[in-house]
Specification:
Layout: H1 12-32, E1 39-42, E2 48-52, E3 55-63, H2 77-92, E4 100-105, H3 114-117, H4 127-140, H5 147-155, H6 158-166, E5 168-171, H7 180-187, H8 196-217, E6 222-223, H9 224-237, H10 247-250, H11 266-273, H12 278-300, H13 306-328, H14 337-353, H15 365-377, H16 387-395
Parallel strand pairs: 3-4, 4-5
Antiparallel strand pairs: 1-2, 1-6, 2-3
Helix pairs in contact: 1-7, 2-5, 4-5, 4-6, 8-9, 11-12, 11-15, 12-15, 13-14
Length: 406
């Protein structure tokens, strides 16, 4: 025990292997979408399984190595462990006899090996040579850890060995977990003319969440139709008149008991100043949080620029000023405090209901609502007719007669 360290339990290789499996599934799903209908699942019959009409059409074993360049020799553990899985599926009947079997690996192969004879990149596959070399390896290897699979393979007749190997395709040098993204991006070159990097990030983010959902809920797989629908949604969200809405940001919620944490913010005080209830304060907080996070993300992804934001905020301030003036004109001279508070609630209601999208096809109303609360937080707009004076009293600072309004 004293000779061990925490590195003894490092699971980096395993984690990268699982991430690789998920990314390979996405790459192959994009490729399979060009051919026909399918549903894809992970960790069912194999690492990755493609089905059509409920029947497995292909299964994938993925083998990932990043620390060193592996090589698939005739006695390679990766090769024989894969054969073990397929021999079991073959014997149990869980994997039909016409299902294609793919070994996807970052490893290289050398000429003259069984893997080379089964390679997808080989102009003429040689099943008999592959069978002969594997029988020899199974007979001569002294690797006790693989003894069971050696025996299972040798127990088959030569004809059955060749039938099994004829279904197997080795795909070497597929690229590691990082490099596989380049291949995914190449598959998506037709997806959008703009913001290719963001499109890839959006698709992969959705894919990872869908895979997790399938694994947790033992789902029936991700279909071609669902994948193509998601790609279409991403295309639409990246058009010049639209912006993508992040699902996680849209779900941001603050609980009612968290209100005191925001009580020092100007936008909170602005809503409180006109006597609005706690639920409307909560709505203001949630709208502010979402709009701030989403606009920041759009800016980081270079989908929105400072000039776009300035133009949008100018539009919001112009419309707010018109609405405030319309409501305040009805107050008359020397209005009472309760009348001004009521007028302020009307302006706030306008801010909660108004539809002024940041782009024509951005339907999330909280973007507009939250952006108005962001301006209120900066004291550039407000709900109470005399919000500048009232807030300056609360904050103990001299009132700015224009409150930053331009």
């Amino acid at each position: 025990m004293s000779d061990q360290s925490v590195h003894t339990y490092n699971a980096t290789a395993s984690m990268l292997g699982y991430l690789y499996q998920v990314r390979v599934a996405l790459l192959w799903a994009l490729q399979q979408a060009k051919v026909g209908e399918f549903s894809v699942s992970l960790e069912t019959l194999d690492d990755v399984t493609f089905e059509a009409n409920g029947i497995p059409i292909s299964v994938l074993q993925t083998k990932h190595s990043i620390s060193k360049k592996a090589n698939l020799t005739d006695s390679s553990a990766d090769l024989w462990k894969t054969l073990r899985v397929w021999l079991v599926g073959n014997a149990s009947g869980e994997v039909p006899i016409d299902t294609a079997l793919f070994l996807i690996t970052t490893a290289s192969i050398t000429d003259g090996t069984a893997a080379q004879a089964l390679c997808a990149h080989t102009p003429e596959r040689d099943i008999k040579t592959a069978c002969s070399r594997l029988r020899q390896a199974a007979t001569t290897s002294s690797n006790d850890a693989l003894k069971d699979v050696f025996e299972a393979f040798l127990a088959l007749s030569q004809s059955d060995q060749e039938k099994l190997l004829d279904r197997i395709v080795v795909v070497p040098d597929e690229g590691n977990v990082s490099e596989i993204l380049t291949k995914i991006e190449q598959e998506l070159h037709w997806m959008t003319l703009h913001h290719q990097k963001t499109a890839l990030e959006l698709l992969e983010g959705w894919w990872f969440k869908r895979v997790v959902h399938e694994l947790v809920n033992d789902g029936c797989g991700i279909s071609r139709t669902e994948l193509e629908a998601q790609i279409s949604d991403i295309q639409e969200s990246l058009k010049p008149d639209a912006l993508p809405i992040d699902d996680a940001i849209e779900k941001l919620m603050v609980a009612l008991d968290q209100l005191p944490e925001f009580s020092g913010r100007n936008f909170y005080r602005q809503v409180e100043l006109v006597g609005a209830g706690k639920n409307r304060i909560l709505n203001a907080i949630n709208s502010y949080q979402r709009a701030f996070a989403q606009r920041s993300q759009w800016t980081r992804d270079e989908l929105l620029f400072d000039t776009d934001i300035s133009k949008y905020e100018s539009t919001l301030k112009t419309e707010w000023l018109l609405k405030r003036d319309q409501i305040c004109d009805e107050l008359g001279d020397s209005p009472a405090d309760d009348a001004m508070a009521k007028a302020g609630r009307e302006v706030l209601k306008w801010a909660e209901d108004v539809v002024l999208p940041i782009r024509p096809n951005v339907a999330a109303q909280w973007v507009c609502r939250g952006s108005l609360h962001m301006l209120a937080d900066e004291l550039k707009i407000g709900w109470h007719p005399n919000f500048e004076d009232r807030l300056s009293e609360i904050l103990g600072v001299e009132s700015d007669p224009v409150a930053g309004i331009t």
